[in-house]
Amino acid sequence: MPHVFHVVVCGGIVPDPLQSLEPVAGAAGPSLKNEMMLPAVLDPWAAHALYEAAHLVKAHPGSRLWLVSLGPKAKLQQVMMTVAQKVPFELIALDGPAGGFTEACEVAEALANAILGIAGLDRGKLLLFGGWESASRGAGATLAMVGERLGILDQFQGVDQLTVNADGSLTVLERIEGGQHQVSTAAGAPAVLGWATGHLPEPPNSPAVGMQNMRAIMPALGKAQPFRPAGEGLRFLSVELPRQRRETRIVRDLSAEQIADELVAWIKG
Prior knowledge:
Elements: E1 6-10, E2 13-15, E3 23-26, E4 29-32, E5 40-42, H1 44-59, E6 64-71, H2 73-83, E7 90-95, H3 104-116, E8 126-131, H4 142-149, E9 155-164, E10 170-176, E11 180-186, E12 191-195, H5 207-222, E13 225-226, H6 256-268
Parallel strand pairs: 1-6, 1-8, 6-7, 7-13, 8-12, 9-12
Antiparallel strand pairs: 2-5, 3-4, 9-10, 10-11
Helix pairs in contact: 2-5, 3-4
């Protein structure tokens, strides 16, 4: 019997990690210097989730895939020009700040409401994917909060592999402490999976897939719902890059225990 899933991936956009990021106190609150000028990419953890979701949907005919993304509409359009060439999906866009200065609970509420508004979504078949972590909203809590708001109790974080069994149950390989993995089993959808790195490579660019996606992405961006966090206008006394501190001593003939004692004393000091 075929198993059909409705997979929703929550993924934001972030500045290209190769760029130098400098926090500043702007007129609308904390932001990054020249933020709108920085090239943006899909959050790397969310990208892993998207590729895993696309593979799952392709392996189960009749399944559907949505990408729900919150960010400035102009930046979303820029990023989608690249992401659209990777895998086929339907975009649900929210027009709002993409930086890490928003509260996870506010973002989770906006994402959950957007998911509830998806036409044709069957919550009994729902698999909610996203990044275990985030390059901007690194609280590690947003996806879990979205799942709670949707009433999904089966949640797995740090997922590296998902297997759909013949009876429709899910076998999940997730990371735990000590560099080990835990194997869990869920009865099936609905479930929340926060992906670590997964195990699939990044798909190659496909202009044909990109053209197909963009036909629906542009109208979706035009209908993007505005999101304005309640904390907009929040002020910080100052924002600055962490200062580097370097203290070097050259000492010979110290035992490992003595070196360790000095390191501990330096850290405590």
